[in-house]
Amino acid sequence: MTIAIYPGSFDPITNGHLDIVTRAGKVFEKIIIGVYEKSDKHLVFTTKERVDLARRAVANLPNIEVKSFRGLTVDFAKQEKAQVMIRGLRMNADFEKEFEMAMMNRKLSPELDLLCLMASQEYQFLSSTLLKEVARLGGNISDLVPEHVVEALRKKVHGKM
Ligand code: ADP
User: Fold this and answer.
1) Of the candidates 98, 99, 28, 96, which has an alpha carbon nearest to the alpha carbon of residue 63?
2) In the prediction, which pLDDT does 159 show?
3) Are the beta carbons of 102 and 94 closer than 8 angstroms?
4) How far is residue 35's CA from residue 52's CA, in Å, rounded to a whole number?
5) Is 136 part of the annotated catalytic residue set?
6) What does the alpha-carbon distance between residue 13 and residue 86 come to, in Å, rounded to a whole number?
7) What is the pLDDT of residues 21-31, one digit of tens each?
8) What's the pTM value of the predicted model, to 2 decimals?
9) Could you give the residue ranges of the DSSP H alpha helices within the chain?
10) Which atom of ligand 1 is nearest to the CA of 124?
11) By three-state DSSP, how is residue 74 classified?
């Protein structure tokens, strides 16, 4: 079976992430969204919340699972018997960082390959960080995340995220 992992912070999952995983799901038999338990980013949602939000977002996609992991992404890939790692590339934001990480991961685990999908035009400027800022300031985010994520962000804003 061709298995791919799609790792990230997913704080929270957005329509940009969903676009990537839906497209990748047409290529691979199984995709596992890997939610980092720890991240160097300032996180608003707990690991459990990020996993739950992602699970609900892909509930209608039968070949996509969501798991959390800690430690090296290449070890998570091995544990899940994945041959490929998926990442999304936005025009300006991602290339250099992804390239650097890909070279290091290749060194750590030469058998794991990286597949980058270009972000769709409508999500090129969407990041979880910007999304949280807009939500905090009361902006409309309903085109950018699923409805249950809008609701979860609204609750966090009221709880002063
Ligand atoms: P990380 O902390 O590893 O960057 P993110 O949750 O921010 O994790 O993103 C996970 C993956 O999804 C990364 O490959 C990132 O480039 C990609 N991604 C983030 N936002 C978008 C978007 N709007 N469109 C396509 N891909 C995206």
Assistant:
1) 28
2) 79
3) no
4) 10
5) no
6) 15
7) 999 999 999 99
8) 0.94
9) 15-25, 47-57, 73-79, 95-108, 128-136, 147-158
10) 23
11) helix
Which amino acid makes up residue 157?
V
In the predicted model, is pLDDT for residue 41 greater than 90?
no
For residue range 106-129, what is the model confidence (pLDDT) as tens digits?
Answer: 999 999 999 999 999 999 999 999
Ligand 1 centroid to residue 31 C-alpha, Å = 15
**What number is the average pLDDT over the span 132-138?**
93
Atom 9, ligand 1: residue with shortest CA distance = 8
Ligand 1: centre distance to CA 73 (Å): 15
Cα radius of gyration (the chain): 15
Cα–Cα distance, 148 to 151 (Å, whole number): 5
Q: Is the peptide bond prior to 146 cis by the omega test (within 30 degrees of 0)? A: no
- Local structure of 73: helix, strand or coil: helix
Contacts of 60 (CB under 8 A, 6+ apart): none
